[in-house]
Every structure is written in C-alpha cells, then in structure tokens.
Design brief:
By secondary structure, the chain is α/β, with parallel strands linked by helices. Helix content is about 40%, strand content about 20%. The strands form 2 sheets. A 5-stranded mixed β-sheet has the order 3-2-1-4-5. It has a 5-stranded mixed β-sheet with strand order 6-7-8-9-10. A hairpin with an 8-residue loop joins strand 1 and strand 2. Helix 5 packs across helix 8 and helix 6 crosses helix 7. The chain starts with a helix and ends with a strand.
Length: about 375
C-alpha cells in the first residue's frame, strides 16, 4: 500500500488533464489522510478548469482579429506613467494563434514572483516581442501621454515579423498605420495585452532595482519610482537624482522656509502613509493650479483620486471634514480639471474621484478617517 506522501508525490507530477483518472485509483482508500489529499487535488483541478474558461474568454478579441484575416495580432501595454522617477516602458507581444498561458492577466493583479515566472514563459512562446523605453528627460520634454505613445511606437517597431493588427490597453496610438483597437482594461480582457503588461512591468521593475544600487536612499527597489512617503521624504532630504521627472516633482522639492513640522504637513504625511497601506500609489502632493490646491493625488487601479486632507487637534470647531465646504470643493475641482488636462488623463480612460482624509489628534492619540467619493466633479 502506498503511503500518503507517495500518493501526494504521484498526483503532484501528474499532468492536469490526466488528474481525474489518476485520482480514481485511490477513491476507495478509507484513510483520512488520503481523502484529504484527494480533496486538495480536486480543488486544484477545479481551479484549473476555471482558469481554462477564463483563458477562453480573454482570447475573444484575438479570435475576432484572426477571423477577419489578421494572423499576427500584437497586444501592447505600458507601465510607469505615474512614478516620480524612471522611464515609461511599453511592451508589444505577438503570441501564436490559440496560445493559452495559464496565469496571464493584468500585471497589477499578480505577485512579483508570478510575474517573473510568466515573463520567461511569454518570451519563450512569443512569435515576436518589442520593448520601448522613453526616459524621464523625454517625459519632461513632451509630457507623459506623448511619451507613452512614443514608447508604444518604439515597441511596435521592434516586432519582427510586424503586427498586422494591434490590441492596446485603453488608448488609440497616434501615427500608427496598422489597424488597431483600444480596449478599456484590456490587460484583463485580452491574452495578448495581458502578456504585454507583464513583460513591461517586469522589465521596468528590474530597471528600477538597478537604479536603487546607483542612487541609494530613495528606495527605488521597493517603490519603483512611485511617490511613496519614504520616496518623497528622500527627495526633500537628498534632492533629485538624474532619473527624476522634474515636471512631476516640482511641488515636492524643498523650498526656503518650507517645513513638514507644521500641522498641515504632518496631517498630509500621515494621510499619505495610510493611503499607501490602503493600496494607493501617490504620484503627486500639493498640486497648485487656478487658485486651487490638491493635497494628495493618488491612483488605484483605473481611478485617479484627488484627496483633500484636513487636520485638527480637536473637534471643538467641528470635524475636519466639515471644513471642506462648497467653496473649498469648487477650488479643488478647478485644480483637478487643470491636472487632468495637464496630464491628458481623459484620453487615457481614467475614472476620477474626490475623497477627504481626516486626521484628528485628541488626548495624545491620532485618529484617521477616510471618506471616498466625498463630492463629485460635476458639482
């Protein structure tokens, strides 16, 4: 009689398609440990079937292209529009027809380990791939949207053979003669775009990790150039590196007489740290335009969030949120519209939201409360 560990070892090396038949060999085994092993592998097989169904669904756009006579379909995506430092990177990938790579999805939904594993598989299976890189200097020169398009065109130009049709995540790439289609949240809806998002993400992450060694103290290996509280503090303490985007950090550099010891600065720093724990990326703080100011501009998935931070030592004059009256809201909305226009965010398909972060210090304790969708852009 085989031991439980031996059965587990056999099932672990069994091809997934043969797993149900292999498990039948021990269906009548009354040992509780064996039945627990079988239950575990049944769940594993069920997840496999669910993944196969998902892969069928995310080949829908590609199959439409193939049916229309386009044999070489490229997915393209970028990473690095929001960071304060480093380049924007785009990747284009052509996969063989009916290629199904388990796990391929929007790169943001995957762990770093899983992305690394899939990166090698994608490049091994790809008919062709290309990677476009646009530097921080070029971003400052032409703006992030145009830099993104430039990186995408560069990635596409490297494909050999060239793409006959392009599936892009959310955008329509200008100055491209090849037929194309922009798909909102395409990295989760298209196998090709999902593969491109993983390649771009892994390539840029590795690049930022190399910059961490060249420019210690900024935490580039961890934050990948995004505006974490530690990264912002390092800029204010150490200044800018050659890879920082000057157009992104103009409001973060230390100014004469500026200090973060004031209560507003303390409140914003605390709010920023809490928001990062909540999964937000923070590309900018203290954005000023049209007589309005936005304390924190954050990003989460496909939503740009404009957050007003209110700090008070007590509630004798009301809660912090009550200070965000209609006049203040209009000032914030006006500044947000300027930021949206400056960064060309409408064209990128983002959603927008206005939140309020409350920081209250009472009896030597600090309380944090966060309100999503506190007011609307249309107000």
């Amino acid at each position: 009689m085989q031991s439980i560990n031996e059965i587990k070892e056999i099932l672990s090396h069994c091809p997934m398609d043969a797993l149900p038949a292999q498990m039948q060999e021990w269906e009548g085994d009354s040992r509780k440990g064996v039945q627990n092993v079988l239950t575990s592998f049944r769940k594993k097989y069920e997840r496999h079937l669910q993944e196969l169904a998902r892969l069928e669904e995310i080949l829908t756009y590609e199959r439409g292209c193939w049916a229309a006579g386009y044999a070489l379909v490229a997915g393209i995506d970028e990473v690095g529009r929001g960071p304060l430092a480093g380049p924007v990177v785009a990747a284009a990938v052509i996969l063989p027809q009916e290629c199904k790579i388990e796990g391929v999805n929007d790169s943001k939904r995957l762990s770093a380990k899983k992305r690394e594993e899939l990166y090698d598989v994608i490049l091994e299976k790809a008919v062709a791939y290309g990677i476009g890189i646009v530097s921080n200097e070029r971003i400052d020169e032409i703006n992030i949207l145009q830099a993104t398009y430039e990186a995408m065109r560069e990635a596409l130009s490297q494909l050999s053979p060239h793409a006959e049709y392009i599936l892009a995540d959310a955008v329509t790439i200008p100055r491209i003669s090849t037929p194309q289609r922009g798909i909102i949240k395409g990295d989760a809806k298209s196998m090709s775009i999902g593969a491109a998002s993983i390649v771009a993400k892994v390539y840029r992450d590795r690049l930022m990790e190399s910059y961490d060694a060249a420019y210690p103290g900024y935490g580039f290996a961890a934050n990948k150039g995004y505006g974490s509280a530690e990264h912002i503090a390092a800029i204010q303490r150490l200044g800018l590196t050659p890879i920082h985007r000057r157009s992104f950090v103009k409001n973060l550099r230390p100014q004469e007489g500026d200090t973060t010891t004031d209560k507003g600065g303390r409140g914003e720093t605390l709010a920023a740290k809490q928001m990062e724990k909540m999964g937000y990326q923070i590309p900018e703080r203290n954005f000023n335009a049209l007589r309005g100011e936005i304390d924190i501009i954050a990003k989460k998935e496909n939503t740009i969030v404009f957050t007003e931070v209110k700090y008070r030592k007590n509630e004798t004059m009301g809660t912090p949120a009550e200070a965000v009256d209609s006049r203040k809201q209009q000032n914030i909305i006006r500044a947000a519209k300027a930021y949206i226009a400056q960064e060309c965010l409408m064209e990128m398909g983002y959603d927008f939201r206005f939140d309020v972060a409350e920081v209250l210090t009472s009896e030597e304790k600090t309380y944090f409360r966060y309100t999503e969708d506190a007011f609307r852009l249309s107000e």
